[in-house]
Amino acid sequence: MNANNAIVLLIALPLFSSAILLxxxxxxxxxxxxxxxxxxxxxxxxxxxxxxxxxxxxxTDRPLTQKLFEWISVGGFQVDAxxxxxxxxxxxxxxxxxxxxxxxxxxxxxxxHDHNRRRFFAYLNLFIAAMLLLVLGDSYLxxxxxxxxxxxxxxxxxxxxxxxxxxxxxxxxxxVANRVGDVGLSLAIMIAFTQFGTVTFAGVKAGAPHAxxxxxxxxxxxxxxxxxxxxAQFPLQSWLGDxxxxxxxxxxxxxxxxxxxxxxxxITRSNFVxxxxxxxxxxxxxVGAITLLFGAIIGTAKDDIKKALxxxxxxxxxxxxxxxxxxxxxxxxxxxxxxxxxxFKAGMFLGAGSVMHGMDDEVNMRRYGGLxxxxxxxxxxxxxxxxxxxxxPPFAGFYSxxxxxxxxxxxxxxxxxxxxxxxxxxxxxxxxxxxxVIVLTFTGAKRWDSKAHPHxxxxxxxxxxxxxxxxSVASGFLLSSGSALVNWLQPIVNxxxxxxxxxxxxxxxxxxxxxxxxxxxxxxxxxxxxxxxxDAPTKVSIFTTAARKDLYQDSFNEAVLMHPGQKLTTxxxxxxxxxxxxxxxxxxxSLSIISTAMRKIQNGYVRSYALVMVLGVLALVTxxxxxxx
Length: 629
Description:
- By secondary structure, the protein is mostly helical.
- Among the domains are: 288-337 and 358-532, no CATH class; 557-628.
- The chain is built from 25 helices and two strands.
- Strands 1-2 form a two-stranded antiparallel ribbon.
- Strand 1 (64-74) and strand 2 (77-85) form a beta hairpin.
- The longest helix has 49 residues, at 553-601.
- The model has no long low-confidence stretch (mean pLDDT 90).
């Protein structure tokens, strides 16, 4: 198989299978899920093949470009529909197709009783095709097509059970929030075109050193806005919690391993823009720091197991975004955490789905308790992901999140204190809310209803969870051993360049600080939640109330954006209907009244015409007489 020809198959196969399932109707109900899963597995095999082919070539010859056709040709501006497979995009290809295939397998059983399972799998494959196009496009315009395709597929999947109004509303909310970010990407493409005359990554990279600081800052700001929308970062983070309305496999695929990492990919792919603009880079670390704390605080008060994990995702993506603003080495650590997070967070989301499956779709953790005995495999696999996200050695998060904390602290000065302090505080809060999830769900006395009969999930559900749990244990060590991933990405992000000549804090010191704070968070949660009532207390602190209400993000959006927007729209509609259209209608009505009066004069009687003539003569004579006085 030719390596170049195989690239297009990565997108064509899931896209074609999605079309088959959507167009074949009920005829494919019996085999549609099998086709979708087989296609996803095939794309993973192709991805593995491409990886080994790439690994066998010298680093300078590893990137491959495949031109599909000439897309836009206007004057000197030309954009080809081309695909780029390099060291960065292959990481995402393997993550998307590998984790995606495991989620497909899990979904075969999880969605087995759903009447529209075939359509669900069609949407899954549509999403995978769009996500692969996003990371394989060789220009911002090609990326934009995949970017919009991911937005469409996520809308369809989040609102899959749209017969429930709340779920349909959640899908719409995600769609609208993402459209705000998409405006940023659209403007970024326009800025790139006006400044560089091209929208390809290579063209923008070549022109960046010669661009004005203002242009680079504007371009970086718009790219960051796009990333904030897709990756649920401040100030566009409000949609992620509500997006848990979709089936749990959707949460694992979109909101843990793939879609929400698209913003991290965009910033990392555009590293040449941010490295050339310190202002844009400062914006990135600010957004990342705010969001990692924002999501962590929200996670401390959620009783819905999926929403607690969603808040965790928001926080962990914040770590990645922050890392991308810490210079060349930060990009590599952001991708390292992105890959390890794909394993442990997808595994925990699937574990949450397994708990829901055994608890008759109950999501309130206060109505769980003691499930480790009834669901031992789910408890073990979920706990391995828990240890990974805490950063306990030798689990995956220890190798990825600790590197981000270390790089933040070594930034030096006030910057290092602020960013390092934020990352350490985030680690402590993460330990607290994730321990809370473990304690409320798997330990203590049972608090479920007598009608509930919790049981372990079938093998098609727990097997993917077990594989992801292995990744939660081993992926960090494998990817960081000998600086493997850093060296792999070095040609793309210049990761071999270290911004700081000396380490302000040794790795052992950073790890000790992080583990000490993690231990504080764990012990605090165990002490607080070792016994817990079924119903949440009605009287709570102002901080808990704020966290339960997502730090009032929806209230802020409604007060600052929605209500003024509604009033503005109402005013514009009134102006259009009453002022503009009213003026036009007034002119027409006036002419109609005048013409009606004139018609009464033109009645066809000679005596009427003679009277008018006499009146006219009298008026004329009177006028002349008055003038000559």
